[in-house]
Batch of 2 targets.
Target 1
Amino acid sequence: MNNISQEDYLSAIYRNLDDSGEIKPNLLAAKLEISNAAVTDMLRKLSRDGFVDYQKYKSIKLTSEGESYAKNMLRRHRIWEVFLHQTLGMPWDKVHDEAEKLEHSSSDEIINLLEEFLDYPEVDPHGYPIPDKNGKMKKNRAVVAVTELSENESAKVIRVNDDVKNLLSYITKIGITLGKEIFIKDKLEFDGSVLIVIDKKEVNVSSKIASNIFVEKIQQSVR
Amino acid sequence: MNNISQEDYLSAIYRNLDDSGEIKPNLLAAKLEISNAAVTDMLRKLSRDGFVDYQKYKSIKLTSEGESYAKNMLRRHRIWEVFLHQTLGMPWDKVHDEAEKLEHSSSDEIINLLEEFLDYPEVDPHGYPIPDKNGKMKKNRAVVAVTELSENESAKVIRVNDDVKNLLSYITKIGITLGKEIFIKDKLEFDGSVLIVIDKKEVNVSSKIASNIFVEKIQQSVR
DNA sequence: TTATAAATTTAAGCGAGCTTAAAAATCTAA
DNA sequence: TTAGATTTTTAAGCTCGCTTAAATTTATAA
């Protein structure tokens, strides 16, 4: 390919597919923050080049070629994120934007060398799995959003959505990192927010934020 | 700035300034492999934006802002080269092209972190000095091209031009690396080529290549 | 000095990727 | 079922960075 714009489209499509593996042009336009008309335009090109299945007024699917390409972009992105965070010590709420630029400018050769240097990491700094050279990717661990937890449950943070603007920097402020234990002290019906305990401090977290933090429940030990 | 094309122009201008700190549009067009007309076009924009001093039909100069910008691009480029070669083990004849892409996609923050990680390298893998954060750069070491050596002189390779296509991969084939000692066995008048000894093997090197290899003479010990 | 060559600019035009506005198709809810 | 809302496409137009061709300026060499 060799085209930043087309790569961005493929990435955005892949990241936002619905349960049936499709995405509507309208949502894609919103994610890319461009007009619907521009999306229509580009879809014709991506279709012409064999990356998407596209028919007028229909939802968009990726062809298998498009999917491999998108998955490879995801691989590049996440490997760069690991490098930036782990090797260079960049905070996890900054690596997404930087990786977004780097992923367009690096050959597969660099990515493979980086992967080796990093000793084949399995997840990025936000807990998302990294596709291997052949596009194989571990399934996301079976996690639930914090909104799904009940009162008095404890859980361990496994993954955090890195796609939503400013979410991460807020999450960082209240002390959440991967692996951290949290305790649900209270769930507030009227706005869906959750009162959680982190590091012995109580924080009220809005439902929007809680729905983007994914955890594994910790079995309460019987005393 | 935030513009790959303009960054490429500034880099190319800076890298190819003549002794009086100027470059002609014609040469710039050749280096960038585009038409003279395109250069004229872009020069107006770079001038409008305060990066170059430009008057119709005159040679191009960089403003101080343009020079800082270009020097920073050089810094980014060379730090990436060191990383690719030293940390990832990429051959020195491949790092230039890869760094050319990465240099446009990395914030100063990444570059500064990389520099620290690499422990403040002074030269890139081809022996060129790396500007520091403030744009300060060690002078190139006082070297001479291999074409300047006389018969029976020994010398140590200090720097190699990384700008000329395919030069490096050829140089690598005949065994030249930074720090390597060479011995001038013969100079052939009729074509300017040089017969040099590397690792006890004799190689005839054309004057074009020899003029791009820079060395320090080694004082012959008196026996 | 001047004719010719070379360099540079101007002019017209092209494709990519975007925009807004209007038209057409599809969805949704009474 | 259908009217109104929403989504999608089409159409026209913009900027950017490039091209080729022609015009103009500058450099060179007889």
Target 2
Amino acid sequence: MIKTVVIDDDKLVSLSLKTILESGSEITVAEIGSSGSEAIALYEKHAPDVMLMDIRMNDMTGIEAGEKILSAHPDARILYLTTFSDDEYIVKALNMGAKGYILKQDFEGIAPAVSAVMRGQRVFGDEVMTRLPELMQRKSAFDFAAHDISEKEQEIIVLVARGLSNKEIAAQLFLSEGTVRNYLSSILDKLSLRDRTQLAVFYYTKCSGSADF
Amino acid sequence: MIKTVVIDDDKLVSLSLKTILESGSEITVAEIGSSGSEAIALYEKHAPDVMLMDIRMNDMTGIEAGEKILSAHPDARILYLTTFSDDEYIVKALNMGAKGYILKQDFEGIAPAVSAVMRGQRVFGDEVMTRLPELMQRKSAFDFAAHDISEKEQEIIVLVARGLSNKEIAAQLFLSEGTVRNYLSSILDKLSLRDRTQLAVFYYTKCSGSADF
DNA sequence: AATTTTATATGACAAATGTCATGTATCGAC
DNA sequence: GTCGATACATGACATTTGTCATATAAAATT
């Protein structure tokens, strides 16, 4: 028997979920809650095998609640439910160590998902998974401001990361080649890099995705 | 009732799988096969709801077989089994549209995985999923062979893409700096690039991921 | 054994790169 | 109006880079 706790803002949803989950003989819903803080409390109270939780709720996002639970119980199995792929959260949930992320519309799929999660698998809705590659790309945007990188410097970074030479960059931005060099020099200094190649590497590994390209 | 076909090189494995899957009352194994070509034939013959397939087999990789099946039946549900995370294949399988990728050691997890897949979810073993973020970065591997890029040249590409100077690369590979330059020169020529920075850009956008890093 | 390939190395050279000190014009603050 | 900041530019310099022609020894072919 798999013991679960269901958390959803909308009572109607959580009750339907309870019904669905308990319609088989494998799953029980120990209790249902409707907020992030309740999620934490109920996890402590029941120590469920699997916790099903809505991603977006009033007081706290499901992510935050999940983080708290996981920091106290690293082996907690949290399965997120979402109405319609809330893109932003998918990657976070994944990195956080959530065991799954599925659409709640998908009634039939939920019970099997719970039991797969119980057995150590991770489960993702088809649509969710499909978007994943693209979401994954977007790395954590690098905080240029924190490093005193000006607008113009950022433009230059982007062009360097496109493989342009100083001369080409100069032409593109209507600057003299010398000026471009000066900018570049200051960029390298600020980021503690040695040359344009390292800057390109930096761009593709640490930052990326903020602006164009 | 979920109809499945199981494909595994090792008869022992496929028979055990059959037993496990059929121990519940939800899944039947219509037939078992042991090669990529058989996979295709058996898919045609039974049109199973879910096909469980080993990743590495004699005649053909599970990936190839899967590709063929999916091109003929885009909605086929293929669930890959792997002995121990064969990293290289994970991303391919995912992009290809496989419904899951789980460890076969994980007996208990397999049946729930099959039923979750049947319901439209995608299922991944915990270990598999954990590696995913890092594997994802690595774009579709570039075909070095097609461009006459030698082993040594590839090593150099990787180091350039790490931001090392010629001198550093030379030290790393126990070559003279001049030799490194020569290699690099020939690489640039073969790939029609102009300088090391463009090579790094190339590495992060077009190829990447074949070797280390 | 003779020959070709392969892997490595050199040296010479031009171009690109990065650094630095300095110069000039504009613009806003005081 | 002066002062200081900002944005752009220069020139000089050392280094690094990329290209090319050539060399050598070992390994593979013949």
